[in-house]
């Protein structure tokens, strides 16, 4: 390969890697690929560096600039270290929290991280041993640290790992920090020091092992969230718990003790941390079949309820056996609504006078908004992701609100006064307490959810995706929605003017209903769809939520009370859709939703050139 347009040749990339990488295994991997002439594989590994974003890093673990390995983790840590020094006073003294889970190479990546910070004179608050992800942001807040790093890929496949960054406020980073860190990474490519093993790091006076004391503080604060008194028949609920081959088991046991709940039955085949996740196809409680072994265990011991965490224990799932023997796996929205109602009701019972607030993300159910309106609670919607939910919860606190709960439909739940991020252990204890109270009064979780539907209205969701391995087709699909395609003539479109875009032509219909309102957080438009829409002042159509031209997201409101959000996945080759219908009649809502989803999948296939 020759060098064109200042692009390095493949040989130059190989030479650069070997000059920087000191790990024998990954060096040999690149040398072997080079020796065998595997140019396509080398291009994939070396040409485009792994991108640092608001989610930090996440990729397959193997040699190469585009992958997770000792070198790329070291480079990320050096860039983060430099950026924190530039942004935060007394950063070295305040230090960095470093934690890791059980995935392959997690400890090694944590060692690389700690080594880089110590090399620049930082104090390191080391959570040595396996920890659940929420303990890192809790430790950032507890030690008033300048930032935190958790080595985890959550529920990704076994070959992946990740590098998750928390800012000084204990929230995941948001722009512009991601761009600033990425720029500093690019300026700090050469390792400052060879990675030190855990024992050597712990012997350094700049490193303090604080896993035990941080956990003590976490559970002491968690216990304050428990109800003042246990249900009169607290042993009425028998439940099964699975950590899904992750780190959650000891944390879940201790959470149950903090809430004075009777012990659960563990899923023996999934109790030990195992980075290969041998009994599940994907270690994600959302995936079909992921709870099968837990439900089988529950059937065997006659326990009617199953609780699950994902491997790093920041997500939480619930299933319940019904009287006819079949299992209901509750959706993320349903769990979120039950938790929100429980926390609001408890606050009201304790005669708390402050203005309560609850939050959910843009792809979650609108039922939380209905709950908030009915109960006189402040509600806010954020962009997708707990980086937005956590930061907004803190902002609401500064405005005088008490943010008591936030959630996202993908089984993520936050109690901000403990951790301003999703925490599967905290909500495990809270939901187990709720379920125990229900069962002490001979009420099932399923029937409790029905009472909430009767109170706030029926909100039914159907979420899915269409695979789209070609990023160009994904971009073309969204462009077709915004600017028109031959399949939808201009006469069937609304022509609107946004502040920075005068050529938007949105469809009048999508799925099987008429569009009444659109929010486009990529093009920067928000407004009602009428024939006069094009006459609106562009300044009046600016979305209230942040706009990002780098991520695709459009939401449609329809005249049949359905809402649809389309977005491109940030980590997978998918066009995701989030569809929800609402109303007072369950049957009508369900039927409208089925009709809409069937037509939406057809429409999306056309836009992607698949039909």
UniProtKB/TrEMBL annotation:
SUPFAM superfamilies: Phosphoglucomutase, C-terminal domain, Phosphoglucomutase, first 3 domains. The keyword DNA-binding does not apply. Its main location: cytoplasm. GO terms for biological process: glucose metabolic process; purine ribonucleoside salvage. InterPro entries: A-D-PHexomutase_a/b/a-I (IPR005844), A-D-PHexomutase_a/b/a-I/II/III (IPR016055), A-D-PHexomutase_a/b/a-II (IPR005845), A-D-PHexomutase_a/b/a-III (IPR005846), A-D-PHexomutase_C_sf (IPR036900), A-D-PHexomutase_CS (IPR016066), Alpha-D-phosphohexomutase_SF (IPR005841). It comes from the Eukaryota. Residues 51-189, 217-320, 331-455 form the Alpha-D-phosphohexomutase alpha/beta/alpha domain. One of its GO terms (molecular function) is phosphopentomutase activity. Keywords: Carbohydrate metabolism, Cytoplasm, Glucose metabolism, Isomerase, Magnesium, Metal-binding, Phosphoprotein. Transmembrane segments: none annotated. Its cofactor is Mg(2+). Belongs to the phosphohexose mutase family. This is Phosphoglucomutase. It comes from Dimargaris verticillata.
